[in-house]
């Protein structure tokens, strides 16, 4: 059971009573009459064959309040897209699949790329961006939720709690971030949040003081959670990174556009587990190594836009400060694991911190060497300004893919 403590500048909505999912869904069904709701599912084709997504779809079949489900499908050929249509076809809600590797959507992507308006790299950020564009194009939803497709511990209460704060018409929240305890198989998970993000924020606060953005980031209990929800108007001006900085980038954007009293976080699960990335100590372009570099760069970029000046010397100080604070956190987590009877591998934790410390410096030096780098995908309001019929093109491409494949059954 969660506590009721409010920490930082972001409202925290706790799970105090284990309220039945059916009671939440009854309210959400009532809300949906005036505030229709959509769900975005960014998915790799490989996740259709994984251990989590089949259960997620079975749970979603029971959700009564969703007006629309939008699935972004990456890394799928024609036969795999056809299989995805069958796989998701059991959903009773209105739903469509964006076949991102299909010729029609690739043609739109090439057209936007020629104008400097398309995502610059493949990945979850690109998938999410096109899905959000499609949601805007359809105009069905007033409230939108998004979660990953690899959640092994999924049940539909997660979605109900996630979307409730932006669906309830008596609440004034524009954006909501999900959080949870990353505990599974009798051990603590969530290394990048525990051992990189929190110690890095505390290090930056020690060096630069309690800057507003650092206080804001430090208020989130799980800043890297891939689950969030928002009112539809948030999407228009949202610029998101296409790399692993997606979650930090989204938090930065809503911080730029909205007062903190319009933002909240909500406890969505007692237990949460999904697929785990390798540490990838020898490869900066994969696993947690790339993730840590992208996340650190995202934080540094945001601070720079707020007037913080960096240099090679300051990044060396940040690295040293981070390393000491992160090692202290290992002791904290070791004790937390012990009192809860969880396994804890100190050697593995310190290996992670050593890698992250090196990557904090690498991220800083990359930032200094590439000050004009543009990691953000343009907002949909900018794209519509440049290509006024882009929404019509998106809808037509998705519908033609769907009709063509359904007609061949």
From TrEMBL:
Q: InterPro entries given for it?
A: Nucleotide-diphossugar_trans (IPR029044)
Molecular-function GO term, any one:
transferase activity
What are the protein's UniProt keywords? Transferase
Protein name in UniProt: Glycosyl transferase
What does UniProt list as this organism's lineage?
Bacteria, Pseudomonadati, Pseudomonadota, Gammaproteobacteria, Alteromonadales
